[in-house]
Design goal:
Glucose Oxidase, domain 1, protease, elongated, 8 helices, 26% strand, Rossmann fold, three-stranded parallel sheet, eight-stranded mixed sheet, alpha/beta, signal, serine-type endopeptidase activity, 2 domains
Length: 353
């Protein structure tokens, strides 16, 4: 570890300092992206049996200098600006032969939401891989609804299906009524800390409308993400019987023969600042990527989720970006005299599905 990470700094200029200010990753995001770039090969890696195999970074022999500007409360702009001087700044970095790879953003599918559009930056979009994680609920009438989630819990069999009294799965609303042992049906998108409300309410499981149909999110209890249409099917069954029950199975990996295609969340062009410069520049795997995770954070990232893991499955352009960073480093290792523009051009013009 000491030979891998050669530098680590933390920026929290609004804090007075102290023991709580540390470059140690407590959220998992930094460990995930860093190991995707430069993690050494580790065998028998999985998330509770999912995505099993050998994990290794794009350039396992590379070394890392890590600059932490994001904390549990998010990313303070003042911290980012403070770190920018240490990182030289992307334009000055380019002048000194450094390639800067950046995430295109997770605001898709609305057009024109791409970020990091400066011509000297690599703006990386996210695409799918040839694997999906699917989950299913079998209703009491025998009908099977297939959704997506990272549900590593044992099968939850024949639990009563319950609809929130006011239609909200927000923790403050659900905890007013007992849902112990039941599967809660959450009718709204963007549930705060996905599945945490049902967990805190003592529910045994949950069915939640997913914001993106191609993303499997980690859940803190047996649960799956479905579309509005699928939830309507479940509700039709609930309203047809006096004893609605369902069985939620554990997540399974399956082939995704359509890959690679753009992730639904990946911010697309056009570049609204300089329309004549096409952005994003390139895409890379950014859905359901397994990589290292901080044991100080749960798979869901919520403090109410008490699990601790060393590897986690995540989605986002943040997951795609380090793949391209690693590719750039790999090219640089063979062509040390190439400029950032030459390396960027080589990646953009030779990338293929």
């Amino acid at each position: 570890m000491c030979s891998k990470i050669i530098g680590a700094r933390v920026y929290d200029i609004r804090s007075s300092g102290g023991a709580g200010v540390s470059p140690v990753d407590v959220g998992g995001h930094g460990s995930h992206t860093a190991s995707t770039v430069a993690g050494r090969a580790v065998g028998n890696v999985s998330l509770s049996g999912l995505a099993g195999g050998t994990a290794r970074g794009a350039v396992p022999g590379a070394r890392l200098a890590v600059y932490k500007v994001c904390h549990r409360g998010g990313c303070d702009e003042a911290n980012i600006l403070a770190a920018d001087a240490a990182a030289i700044g992307s334009f000055h970095a380019m002048k000194r032969g450094v390639v800067t790879s950046t995430a295109a953003g997770n605001s898709g599918p609305s057009a024109g939401r791409v970020t990091n559009v400066a011509p000297w930056l690599l703006s990386v979009a996210a695409s799918s891989i040839d694997r999906r994680f699917v989950d299913k609920i079998v209703l009491g009438n025998g009908k099977t609804i297939v959704g997506e989630s990272i549900n590593t819990f044992p099968t939850l069999a024949n639990a009563t299906l319950a609809f929130p009294i006011n239609g909200s799965c927000h923790p403050e609303d659900l905890t007013r009524v007992s849902y112990k042992g039941k599967i809660v049906l959450c009718p709204r998108q963007n549930v705060l800390n996905t599945g945490i409300g049902p967990l805190l309410a003592g529910a045994a499981g949950a069915v939640i409308i997913g914001e993106y149909p191609d993303v499997a999110l980690a859940v803190p209890l047996p649960a799956l993400m479905v579309t509005q249409e699928q939830l309507n099917e479940i509700m039709a069954y609930v309203n047809s019987t006096s004893n609605p029950v369902g069985t939620i199975a554990s997540t399974e990996a399956t082939s995704n023969l359509q890959a690679p295609i753009a992730a639904s969340f990946s911010s697309p062009g056009p570049n609204l600042i300089t329309p004549e410069i096409l952005k994003p520049d390139i895409s890379a795997p950014g859905i359901d990527v397994i990589a290292a995770w901080s044991p100080l954070s749960s798979p869901t990232g919520s403090r109410d989720d008490k699990r601790s893991v060393l590897y986690n499955i995540e989605s986002g352009t943040s997951m795609a970006c380090p793949h391209v960073t690693g590719a750039a480093a790999y090219v640089k290792s063979f062509h040390r005299d190439w400029s950032p523009a030459m390396i960027m051009s080589a990646l953009i013009t030779t990338g293929q599905s």
